Amino acid sequence: MKWKKFKIKTVTEAEDIIISALCDIGLEGAQIEDKVPLTALEKEQMFVDILPEGPEDDGIAYLSFFVEEKEDGRLEVCGEPVDEAAILERVRGELQELRQFCDIGEGVITVDETEDIDWINNWKQYFHQFYIDDILVIPSWEDVNAEDRDRIVLHIDPGTAFGTGMHETTQLCVRQLRKYMTPAARLLDVGTGSGILSILSLMFGAGHAVGTDLDECAVEAVAANCEANAIDSSRFEMFIGNIITEKSVQERVGFGCYDIVVANILADVLVPLTPVIMNQLKPGGIYITSGIIDDKEEAVVEAVKAAGLKVLEVNHQGEWVSVTAQKGL
After folding, report:
1. What is the DSSP letter of 212?
2. Which of 19, 95, 145, 169 is the least crowded, having the fewest Cβ atoms under 10 Å away?
């Protein structure tokens, strides 16, 4: 089996947002190479306490994405045939859009070929069911144990999604959504990706969810995960486009009609997003954000205050931050 390897030179702070953006266009399963030291949790998950000293972190990261090459040389992304040039064009387009919001470093792309790896499936041995408090998150290839059947169970197949829920930022958002959810609330999920936050919100009692994302592939991922979790498709709408810059997306999403807006996006996107979202929130509506690395906390808090929102909570998990705020009545 042959694979095309698309490798991007970037900076460590942009890893998450680039991975999310490229998942949106069907490039999944990123391989990350950087010199960031392991956290205590990562060491625990690797069953090690002490590691040899590594090289000093230089802030540079390399992200590699793999696309299977068929025997006849064809490539396929999101079930559609595509050539190397088209993939490069899409990747460059995503990177160029991200440059408007954050520093992505050089953004140089190289293409290579590798053989005999089952990239799409080998990682599954490392992803198993886990808990977010009392919520069980479980992949499609595992069964729910008898003792877990009374829990809230989120079925997720990361092979077709942009996120698994394991990341601290997702968990911070989940807890805040659960805390502030009201019966039949209307939710807007900016950068919805796989739809995890919206689907859980509907399980928590939301009446309707609307998601926005930058690429068509999010529609397929959301539909698959709604079906896996028995969520009626009429309760979850998707709009494709950039809500920050595209007036048409803002109009289709609607103004002043959301009880809760959640955005699990990096700080450099949250800052320009926040004044826009003010227009989508109802008076008294709740704005839940995460994706904020700890040294960006002040910038997001200041953006929230500058938009006229009242900060209700600032929560931390590891090096990540969630800011929850409220629009005035």
Report:
1. E
2. 145
